Amino acid sequence: MQILQAARRLLLGLALGCSSVIALAQMPTVFHLGIAPHTSARVILEMYQPLRLQLEKALGIPVEVVTAPDFTEFAKRMLHQDYDIAITTGHQARLAQTDGEYQPLLTYSADFRAVALVVGGSPLKNAQDLIGKQVVGLSTTSLVTLWGQHWMKQSHNHDSLRYVSASDSVARLVLSGEAAAGFMSLANYQSLNRELQAQMRFLVVSEPMAGRVYMLNKRQAGHRDTIDAALTAFATSAEGKSYFEKYKLEGYRKLRPKELELMEPYAKEVRASLQ
Length: 275
Hints:
This protein is α/β, with parallel strands linked by helices. The protein has helices at residues 2-26, 41-47, 49-59, 71-79, 90-100, 143-154, 167-176, 186-191, 194-198, 224-236, 238-246, 264-274, and strands at 31-35, 63-66, 85-88, 103-108, 114-119, 135-137, 162-163, 181-185, 200-205, 213-216, 252-253. It starts with a helix and ends with a helix.
């Protein structure tokens, strides 16, 4: 009987040991925090440095902030499972959920809106006034670009856009006169130098949409409690509060019921462009 009990304890110990090995194997040697390219890589690295440090402390492994050349490439890498957490706008977050099995964590409290910008003294008043003129946006799968194209088409303006890599490039092209108008997020507009902001005005502002959403890779599901706790700690820290204030984000909140589902029409367009 004692031999049988000892054998059972040995088997149980082996099973627990294997489980521990598997759990350890699931945690990567480097945790990749993927940020959609809503602005330049330099600004993204600076912007997410406080969050990177918080996650690194909580997880006990190096955390790297990574991005992609444009939104289309970001979507490809996201669906290729390159990111442990992907932070991207609602339409790509929906795609990550349905096509990549990522889990939604949270989003920002501030409303996410798209805006069309023109120079302050521009006589342009609507989408029809833009017919035949140069309009710029981010890549073809950027939410603000997709929204902007829908807005133009509703006014029977079917002109194509010029695509650039970052929102600060959009502002530069509008102010230089190389573009009559440009699309970017309200948050990115608010992050521009105040002197630049003062030289532009809104042609149109969108209704609120699902903004930047934190999506957790399915392979990190076992570490969700640790990651949730790290994000909560960041939100209440001095560094986190400074981050929210600087970028006009107000804090974190949970997603509302069906919030990502409402982004499916835009997600469908991204999905089609990747095929």
